[in-house]
């Protein structure tokens, strides 16, 4: 099969290779998927450069997300799954072999049936962003009637978070840094968009909530935004954070947080409780079936152009970068 791999850490053009390797065979409890589309996330590029720890002794076929068709099942898996269109999550978690290949094997429960209303490209957009967003929005229960701020509402996680919260009855505000990003956040269902480069976020939120503040924040930059978050959170409010790139080692103002009884969550999708993953899959499937989700694709590259695809991710696109395995 054709595949992408790297055997050393480094820049995409220095370490990524494209070639032929043996097609994997399923083990017990697994399915093999003929990959149509592989989704690339920032974590894929950061792992390749060593930003998420050292790599093991084996070569790595990258990418956690993707979509395709099951063509083989292992012992213990219902044979009727052969032929199912599926989206995949966590393909490379605990494995050196992700979706940047014509075939990938994954545990059966990581290959989720893709409704006919959704395309394979739609399915490849889900995975890490959608599961992370679901956990950040719902880890503390229903959001019906809650007021939620999603920072970075044009990003992959933030955009799904807006959609999930709005679909579930929340009032959603979002911060962005420009007009194009504002359009994406508004299309996802945010009631009000705040350009943090042009407006005082705390003042605007307090105006919008009549001084009552927010119930929850879905946070893309925990450290950099923490001071503002504490100004606009209600007592017992929740910050669910999945990133803090600008301020990776934030200082925690303990007493300011204590006297608001703030809950601060750190959400790494791979370590989500399994019941939370199942709940996310159930909700996402229902929304896909009713064609209620929007998926933003920034660009699609052929497998042979994977270096350009990784560089596009590193440039910070508006939407997901995909590899088309059939191109």
- Beta fraction: 25-35%
What is the distance, rounded to the nearest whole angstrom, between the alpha carbons of the first and last residues? Answer: 14 Å
Structural class: alpha/beta
Overall average pLDDT: 97
Supply the number of helical segments.
Answer: 11
Query: Over the alpha carbons, how many angstroms does the gyration radius reach?
Result: 20 Å
Sheet with the most strands, sense and barrel status: 7 strands, mixed
Describe this structure in words.
With 327 residues, the protein is α/β, with parallel strands linked by helices. It folds into two domains: 155 residues, Quinone Oxidoreductase, Chain A, domain 1 (Alpha-Beta Complex), CATH 3.90.180.10; 142 residues, Rossmann fold, CATH 3.40.50. The chain has eleven helices and 15 strands. Strands 3, 4, 5, 6, 7, 14 and 15 form a seven-stranded mixed β-sheet that branches. Strand 8, helix 5 and strand 9 form a beta-alpha-beta unit.
